[in-house]
Design goal:
mainly alpha, 2 domains
Length: 200
Amino acid sequence: MKKFLNFINIVFGLILIALIGWGIIAFLRLYWQSVTSLEPNLASAIIAASATMIVAVLTVVIAKYYERKQEIENQQREKKIEVYEQFMEKWFDKLLVMSKNKDKNKNVLDDEEFVQFLSEFTRKLILWGSNGVVKKYSFFRQGSLTPAQDSSPYAILYNFEQVLFEIRKDIGHSNQTLKSGDLLTLFINDIQQATKPKGK
């Protein structure tokens, strides 16, 4: 029964669209016939006035559309920044501890409070994060949860930096003059002496 009702709604929707299209075409045809039956000077004046009015209306509509779009983007950016700040605050604390301990096999799931944060952040990231941030974070998360036995102790930090680059990109920064390691040097003192992991 539900499928039948959906089918009926689709049919009525298509019919409504067809009627609206037919009405617009009929109106334009009638308008053109009325204008062309007038004297050339009068017809030209009416066409010019109509064109001016149409352009003015379209200009207002388009301006409102882009204004609304910009407003939505600004609201989304504010929410993104809030979510990303929470991410950096928690992970900065965790990564600084891990980098000091140099324990690459320590699983972040050992921290119950941090696990709860990860769950809440993942939910927010799905809602507000860009595709790029989601992909980079997914890669980073898997590497931090189950680090490879032969991986560099700094591998997780470079993966974290890739997330930071993507976050900066999502909120409007170009990152053009930055290279791998530049962000890590802001909070990891000996990162320049570390070996960059393969593939990064």
